[in-house]
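Batch manifest, entry 17 of 40.
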Amino acid sequence: MKYLLPNISSRNQVSEPTNLYEIDLVKQWLNISPGTIIKTTNSSKITIINVGTRNKHEGPDIKDAILIINDKVVNGPVECHICTSDWYKHKHHQNPAYQSVILHVVRKLNGGIVTPIIPTVLLKHDIHFSNKCSLNSINKSSHLFNTIMHNSHNRWLDKINIYNGYHDNQKLLIKLLIINGFRILGAGGNSTQFMKLANNLNYDKFQYLTMQECEKYLWDTSLQLKIKWVRCGIRPAQQPQNRMKLAAELIHYFLHLDFNVLPSFSKVKSLVAIYLPSAAGKGIQTELLGNILIPFYAARALYFNKIEDYQNYYEIWNNLKLPNAYRKFAKRFGTILQSTQLKSFSLLQGLITINNNWCSKNLCHLCPLKEENYVNS
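Output type: structure tokens
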């Protein structure tokens, strides 16, 4: 599919809608299918490999797009504007955060202005795409729930296998646990930043620090590393200043962990309440339990060849409940699954796997949740 410059002199030009919003242009871009060929304003061809994902924080509108430009594969952000001149109006040419933009997507040209150097694509409002989920009550597989839980089990195994090869080295095991824990703390926009911090800490130093000193050390280290924390679009509870105290508590939790003991679930929850008081919300507690602590103890159970303990941990993991469903999946699967099911931590893990393997790759026609695509595995 190609997009050509409009014929300015044409009297049959389709008029633009009265209200123009950048978010509509962003959504239109995100709905373009891989393999689509787009023509730029200077008649060059661009092939879309991956449209990227929406950036809800500071910086360009789209991140991690993959395009073929001038026969070269290019990876980077995409910026969307109603008018080409908005690039200058918003002072992007003076902002280092926009120097890596690989494509400028606009609704209309104005004043003959085209973004210098950066390829510019004109998307008219009357060209529509749709990658909306087509799964419904009619075409859903009768094995839908089993398929989701099969993918959930695969994700459970992935979480356990992370610790393979580390069980005999407690120092490396602690570091791995902290890195995984920090990734959870950064969910929503700061995962990369928290993981960078975790990878650059002197863990021997924490043995001699109080909780307050530990928190200060984390902040000082982040300043030394020049970590740029995302704050725009981050929920208050997930802001880095509110997560750093919990990060310090998490470090102390793992440093005082008895790696030779397999505690019961009630004991794990009591330890969380004692060592992680900042994790007061049920949501973050469940995320830490489901993503880190329960899989870790299950991995230790296998290491000690205690199969019954391993099975108990898996049962506990399957029964974890979140206070709220993930918004994206509630919107997509709300008519297919019950609200109570969408709060099941393990079921959501299955949906994450399906999303990563099919939805995010625009493989809707191969969706394993549809009747015609079901494979008994």
